[in-house]
Amino acid sequence: MTGDVAGRLAQVEQEILARRPEHSIDPTLDRISSLVTLLGDPQRAYPVIHITGTNGKTSTARMTERLLRARGLRTGLFTSPHLSSFRERIRVDGVPVTAERFVEAYEELSPYLDLVDSQQSARLSFFEVLCGMAFAVFADAPVDVAILEVGLGGTWDSTNVADGAVAVVTPIALDHTRWLGSTVEEIAAEKSGIIKPGAIAVLAQQPPSVAEILLRRAAEAGATVAREGLEFGVLRRELAVGGQQLDIRGLLGEYDGLFLPLFGAHQAGNLACALAAVEAFARAEPVGTPAPDSAELNGDDPDDEDAVAAPGRDSGPYRDLEAGPLDAALVRVAVADVRSPGRLEVVRRSPVVIVDAAHNPAGMAATVAALEEAFTFTELIAVLAISEDKDVPGVLDQLEPVAGRLVVTRNSTDRSMDPAGLAEMAESVFGPDRVSVAKRLDDAIELAVTLADEADAGQGGGAAGLGGAAVLITGSVITAGEARLLLTQAGPDGGPAETLA
Questions:
Q1: Which stretch of DSSP H or E encloses residue 166?
Q2: Tens of pLDDT along 151-184?
Q3: Residue environment code for 109-146, b if the CB has 16+ CB neighbours within 10 A, otherwise e
Q4: Is the pLDDT of residue 63 over 60?
């Protein structure tokens, strides 16, 4: 990009960052509603697939987007947080918006931001501004479908001014308890707010009490429900080099021999939800009209000719979608091309260094299970930088059985827990002899790599390939993103990274 664009981009980022941060929550839709009203409700210019949950949202959103794009639809994807660049959050056809378009979108919205700020008791937040920009960018593109990942919760998340034709709920666990509730049931009630009248709700496997709440909300909204393990799910899963081989039963058919280049049973479940969401979207009626019943959704009513035709597919993005199963060849190509940077991502191989964004006990449990299943290390050195508002003891409890040594540190955000306090907490779980402290993430990585090299030397050089000592860098998306930048100097799409935030 030119110097002028780079300078203006940096200025725009600083203006957005000066607003209330996304972790400072004021639960209301008043500000974002005022903004989109002034913009002419751009979020209603395209159908939406809306995704919430505690873990797996971003990966599921990326998988859903890639599958839809394989079918020839122009996609908009809004995810958060970012790894290295604000622009990652707003993508059209799988590509982050250009620096020029990001600046242009902000400048187009700026007068409206000022107007809303002047009319509300609090200014629009960092997240609300980016959400409004995404809505406008997608409408201007224009996209055939937008995939929106909630920032936090559901009911009062800024993305919820959009009505999803399909609402996806990934696994729910305890996280953000300060704002969402102290029990999984309270959190589920909040997240269930994205299930709108007439929508199709795609539900990942949940604890029974959570499933009951989600089903009750779906019934109240007149939504059709598709449940992992019942209407759809993973039929077979086997390890493969660089990922896993899967057979998945969808809502409209079975898809065999899928190679997913991601690790862990949780990613297989995410893909099952993404496939079901894309199938549901192919069959969805516009939100606000009566939803098909479950038999119609699954094509089980042989006497109903309409049950094999996607409602509304004569116009708009539905016109090219088949009524039957998705094209198996297209699905295989799309799944093999799925990437989810910062999720059990190998960024170095001598020694092996893996970055992962797990930031709560349930997420860390999934990461640990995937590590134990897919890798054979002689020793694992973990680097942990985590926000102080997280369930740090719960995360440490999950890490302790697999990590021989732990290096505690901090990332660049003011939410990151102080290394001294984190070390004290870690020593109570790991013991003082297994915990080291580094004040900066780069120093922590250097120390962990040294420890891994020493462990390999002690084993006579270590095993070949992925079998020696390894380093896991984890604790938050910010930690994963900053580690990627330090180790690869690459952005999440493989090109040079922009250090924007």
A1: strand 166-169
A2: 988 899 999 999 999 999 999 986 655 656 678 9
A3: beebbeebeeeeeebbbbbbbbbbbbbbbbbebebbbb
A4: yes
Q: How far is CA 422 from CA 416, 417, 427, in A?
A: 10, 6, 9
What's the predicted TM-score (pTM) here? 0.87
**How far out from the chain centre does Cα 442 lie?**
25
Quote the pLDDT of residue 309. 30
Burial call 162-180: b when 16+ CB within 10 Å, e when fewer = bbbbbbbbbbbbbbbbebb
Residue, of 135 and 282, whose pLDDT is higher: 135
Domains located in the chain, CATH noted: 345-488 (3.90.190.20)
**Nearest alpha carbon to residue 80 among 32, 129, 36, 117:** 129
User: What tokens were used for 471?
Assistant: 């380093």
Q: Is 376 exposed, middle or buried (0-12, 13-18, 19+ CB in 10 A)?
A: exposed
10 Å Cβ neighbour count for 367?
26
d(C-alpha 72, C-alpha 77), whole Å = 15
Predicted confidence at residue 175, as pLDDT, reads 62
3-state secondary structure of 474: strand
Task: Please choose, from the candidates 226, 207, 210, the residue with its C-alpha nearest in 3D space to the C-alpha of residue 166.
Answer: 226
Which residues pair with residue 382 across a beta bridge? 406, 472
